[in-house]
Amino acid sequence: MNQNRVGQRRGGLRLWVLLLFAGYAVWYWVSNRSIDPVTGEPVVIDKNISTEQEKSLGLQAYQQVLRQEQPLPANAPVSRQVRGIAERLIASIPQVTDALAAEHGLQANHIEKSFDWAVTVLQSDQVNAFCLPGGKIAVYTGLLPVAQNPDAIAVVMGHEIAHALLRHGAQRMTRGKLEQLGQVAGAASGMDSGTLQSVMSAYGYGSALPYARKQEVQADELGLMLAASACFDPQASVPLWQRMDQTSAGNAPPEFASTHPSAGSRIQDLQHLMPKALAYRAKFCGEAATAGGMR
To answer: Which domain holds residue 119?
Structure first.
């Protein structure tokens, strides 16, 4: 009888612990929730994470990459080409974000005004590129033969710039805090490690991975509009992802187990966005797009 009462008390205590943590998580989520003007979708970014903190973290990561990798000289032909593409994309940011925000009846926050842009080409076989918070951009030489042309390079760089503009890093940091809170709550409630691991694994497949894929989709759309508005051909995005798929040689994980959409899903989404991208190109690139003069 006594053992039953002790068990009941422990069970009640565990429930209260979970309820308290759940209540705090809900409060944290609601108090840090806002609407992103560019996507028109709700986002949760911890208000204590400032854009200046993001820039500082981005700069630290960038400097570390430069120490570990082999940057090409700034005056190398490929460096000048990539820098020129970046400059056109950056110049298109205000008009594109204003137009996308207007579609949702909102005003763009123009976070790019605080960025300290820098562009570096890294000698590496990696088929990759990135843009860190604060505007630090790097393109790996391994991407160039797969991209094949400036239009495709612009699509990739536009996508990476979009991640920084949409503050996806700060969103992931905020979500990480909530995930840590959930783990602490599970441990404090007496949940055994095996059960906790199973719960977090289910959370990953059911929430964390779809969330990451959603960010990729958002970056694809904004990046495509940036490239189109900068007078690059958005139609280059489809053959680009066909080549990217061939490069992976079937080694990519299935979409449900990945942080990124599959190449097939990406191509389908890009084809759906193509009329809008071409309209942006015609609107913001004007006669140059029609004449094919700025390629």
So the answer is: 32-291
